[in-house]
Design brief:
The structure holds 2 protein chains of 2 kinds. By secondary structure, chain A is an all-beta fold. Chain A is 0% helix and 53% strand. The N and C termini of chain B lie far apart (37 Å). Chain B has no helices and 11 strands. In chain B, strands 2, 4, 5, 6, 9, 10 and 11 form a 7-stranded mixed β-sheet that branches. A 4-stranded antiparallel β-sheet of chain B has the order 1-3-8-7, with no helix packed on it. The chains are: A mainly beta, B mainly beta.
Chain lengths: 116, 112
């Protein structure tokens, strides 16, 4: 069965510092991988997705993630944190061959705090 | 382009009642998926509809049901509400060509 593990439920960084949010997945087939962000009292916004094309994926708001099959990882990074990046981030996986593209398995989420 | 809309945004019900939540997808999107978000269980997949047919379902009891209309709008129904059904219910739509769902703001259901 597929699963997603996000590394750390809370991450705190200084404004301007590197953001690194960890995500490891388990899947028996090449998965589709996603990062979503959720601001308070809002739905989820897609940051980026990996769908078996380039392993380095660039998303919105300066975020990017690299798919590393050997490490079963899909970590999210941003070179310089901004106060507006404070939110909860979710990594998700889907198996296009069995569960379908839209049946996502989500990680537990990582709450990112950005301090001045 | 208008986003995914969900109505109502907030709902308070009592145990044993039933509830219907509505979702209007982005124009042109034919797939609608529903997710439940709770502090304890996180985000869990409920079901997906495509062209008025349930294409996929998660591991929820039969009290949770849904449907999709010919205009792609979708509703989900929860019967015999339990306290544990209190959650944020998120609807998401997608087109078949672009892998990546667009989520609505959610309906926050409180069961007393």
């Amino acid at each position: 069965a597929q699963s997603v593990t996000q590394l750390g439920s809370h991450v705190s960084v200084s404004e301007g510092a590197l953001v690194l949010l960890g995500c490891n997945y388990s899947s028996s087939v090449p998965p589709y991988l996603f990062w979503y962000v959720q601001y308070p009292n809002q739905g989820l916004q897609l940051l980026l997705k990996y769908t078996s094309a380039a392993t380095l994926v660039k998303g919105i708001n300066g975020f990017e993630a690299e798919f590393k099959k050997s490490e079963t990882s899909f970590h999210l990074t941003k070179p310089s944190a901004h106060m507006s990046d404070a939110a909860e981030y979710f990594c998700a996986v889907s198996d296009p061959f069995s569960g379908g593209y839209n049946k996502l398995i989500f990680g537990a989420g990582t709450r990112l705090a950005v301090h001045p | 382009k208008a986003g995914v809309t969900q109505t109502p945004r907030y709902l308070i019900k009592t145990r044993g009642q039933q509830v219907t939540l509505s979702c209007s997808p982005i124009s042109g999107h034919r797939s609608v998926s529903w997710y439940q978000q709770t502090p304890g269980q996180g985000l869990q997949f409920l079901f997906e509809y495509f062209s008025e047919t349930q294409r996929n379902k998660g591991n929820f009891p039969g009290r949770f049901s849904g449907r999709q209309f010919s205009n792609s709008r979708s509703e989900m129904n929860v019967s015999t509400l339990e306290l544990g059904d209190s959650a944020l219910y998120l609807c998401a739509s997608s087109s078949n060509r672009d892998r990546g769902m667009v989520f609505g703001p959610g309906t926050r259901l409180t069961v007393l």
